[in-house]
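To fix ideas, we now present one chain and its tokenised fold:
***
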Amino acid sequence: MRLRNIPRAESVLKGCREVIDAPALYRGSWNDVFGNENPIYIEIGMGKGKFLLTMAERHPERNYIGIERYSSVLLRAVEKYMESENEAPRNIRFICMDAADIADVFDQGEVSGIYLNFSDPWPKARHARRRLTSKEYLYRYDKIAADGAMLEFKTDNRGLFDFSIGEIRECSRWEMGGYTTDLHSDEDMNRGNVMTEYEEKFSAKGNPICKLRAVRKA
């Protein structure tokens, strides 16, 4: 998908101290960036940022990093953060980068949780390797995840969801921790759920939301 360039994006992102430039410089020292030893959770493909901002407010005992490939998309999340009606949470940072390079930015065991919300389904079979729940990406996550780290994935695309379950079951380093094909009707899986902008939109149309949890094996 070709995204429209937004001229102000570069200046706004550079002007926000929570946007981390040259993130690979902090590989292995992200807790120093936050100034604490709290566990680090990342969202890959954070969109407009509602999910990440809400999680950071709910869980001050954690550190959150939002990753977005396109500056024009990250801009929306950063502006939402800067315009927060409440005091903006300090346990949050933003990175503009391609998730394929994630192992260059985080060290082994540095990440305690990974969120994938309504990721691009890359529907053509020849593009399966680009899906954020493909074995290729699961191996990348393994390189940064701590033992027992959690991975959560939500989508309204049933084909992508079934594909993701199959990939996790074939990946020796990840173990399925539960899943549902109707999140909002599943009391256990929906407990504490934070809806993204996409989730609100799709749910309003009557689309069931799928969710899975996986755990990195020790």
Notes: The chain is about 30% helix and 20% strand.
